[in-house]
Amino acid sequence: MLVVNHGGREAIEIFAVDYRDTRKQPALRWQGCLAMPAGHVANSVASYSDGTVIATVLTRPGTSITDFVRGQPTGGVYERAPGEPAFRLLPGTELPGNNGLETAKDDSGFYVIAFGRREVVAMRGTTRASRYGTRRPLNSCQTISIGMATGCCWLEWCATSQPAAGCGRSSMAWPTA
């Protein structure tokens, strides 16, 4: 499990989660951390199946919330692959207020919220080297299924600046026991 930490250090904390005994609370074991670049505050975090971690930064040093509300690029998506010594900014991911983040189920790219534009932006490509080359806002309702140890939830969202009827609201359905 990856967690953004703002307490004492800006880092992505890594935990192993043991939920084998369903009669007990899951057990967490700290595995380490990945420090963010100096002056950068992570907002969201996600990972690929190969262990590569990506994190959003809402406002980089020298930018402000006012800037992203005005639509100016303030944030970015940072990547750190296994064995790399530090996070690096992924070129082309600088958006107004990079916020929420999720990788594509097939590892072909990721989705990031451009908060200042009220858009979900898909970053996709056909190879690892080019998966960040295409940037396009999604303009229709999408359904994402997120697998969890205790079940699944489904999140429906619409990523247009002017949502169509029936879009623009979240609906979550949790399995019942």
TrEMBL record:
This is Uncharacterized protein. The lineage of its organism: Bacteria, Pseudomonadati, Pseudomonadota, Alphaproteobacteria, Sphingomonadales.
